[in-house]
Amino acid sequence: MNSIIMKLKYLAITATLAMAVSCTEKIDINLDNTDVKVIIYGSITTDTVAHRISITQSADYYSNTPPKGISGATVTITDGENVYPLTESITEPGIYLTQPNVYGLPGKTYTIHAQNVAINGSSDFKEYTAESSIPALPENYQNIYLDSINVVYNDNWDGWIVNGWANEPADQRNFYMFRVYINDVSYSDSLNNLMISDDKLINGSSTNGAALYFIQEPDTLKAGYKVTLELCVINEDHFRFLYEAQTSSQPQIPVFSAPPANARTNLNNGAIGYFSAFAIIKSSYIVKEQDVLLKDKILGNKRGSK
After folding, report:
1. HSE of 10, CA atoms in CB hemisphere, 13 A
2. Which of 4, 18, 108, 225 has the fewest CB within 10 Å, making it most exposed?
3. Helix (H) or strand (E) holding 210
């Protein structure tokens, strides 16, 4: 999620602008140097995979380089009973991974501990922690929440709609994040490609093929492509973080409106970013030849009508 980390880098920057007496007065705004912040971002989920935590440091406002990874940290995730150590990637400095057999459980609270973290290779080592809970879910939640999906080209939006048949439980407040993979490669690898929603409008009901995700560009999908939707059950604080981060990354209207507030963080000791824990339910669909032919027919009719 490098794009999310880049957004967080900018959200940590503030600038003060003094009003000039004359409209022709020259105003110098110094945005070159800012306080360097530690950025920690990552998660543990119910998937059995090598879970990924990134530890980087923020850069100056006009820097065009990605955040610099912080190496040499000691990172663990614990659920109060088990401790899962993370190992730094050999090829990606600042990326720390659990063993590939690690998975989270619904109803559990997970805490990340990042020790021996130093900015710019200094000897000023600090420790950071955060905790997040996977929402409690029924034992057979994988078979309850999401039954199936399909994809249909939508000429009004000029893209593909991922429709889902899901059952929303009525006995709890739920918050969701939707992610899509195309041929097992993430399509939702940027902040604004994540879809989030609460259950206010669908609490206790079935979606019955409702649109759950949008894939841009008509030629993104071909016949035989596999589309996988991840329905992620997240907690409310994680939902608020994503909403605030997405809002902050959008253009402000009017242009000279006040800057948006920084997105929240659940990390201590002055770090920014977010550590999350959530459940994942998946469903896949293989794009059919007739799906693509229908898309081509719709586009052909639109071009012919012009």
Report:
1. 17
2. 18
3. strand 210-216
Cis before 254 (ω within 30): yes
Rounded to whole angstroms, the Cα distance separating 264 from 270 reads 12
DSSP bridge pairs for 97: 52, 87
Alpha-carbon distance 152 to 110, whole Å? 38
Phi and psi at residue 270, to the nearest 5°: 85, 0
Compute the distance between CA of residue 247 and CA of residue 256 in angstroms, rounded to an integer.
16
Q: Which two tokens stand for residue 185?
A: 């490669």
Closest CA to 246 of 45, 2, 8: 8
CA–CA dist 65, 87 (Å, integer)? 25
The DSSP code for 41 is E
Which two structure tokens, joined as six digits, stand for 225?
A: 């492509």
**Number of domains making up the chain:** 1
Cα 150 to Cα 211: distance, rounded to the nearest angstrom = 10
Tokens 């530890």 found at: 55
What is the reported pLDDT for 152?
96
In which domain, by residue range, is 45 found? 2-304
CA 44 and chain centroid, separation: 13
The continuous run of DSSP H or E covering 143 comes out as: helix 141-144
List, edge to edge, every strand of the sheet that includes 146-154.
Answer: 146-154, 159-166, 210-216
pLDDT at 22: 38
What values do phi and psi take at 241, rounded to 5?
A: -60, -50
pLDDT digits (tens, 9 = 90+) for 6-19: 444 444 433 333 33
Angle between helices 236-249 and 2-11 (to 10 degrees): 70
Model confidence at 81, pLDDT cuts 50, 70, 90, reads: very high
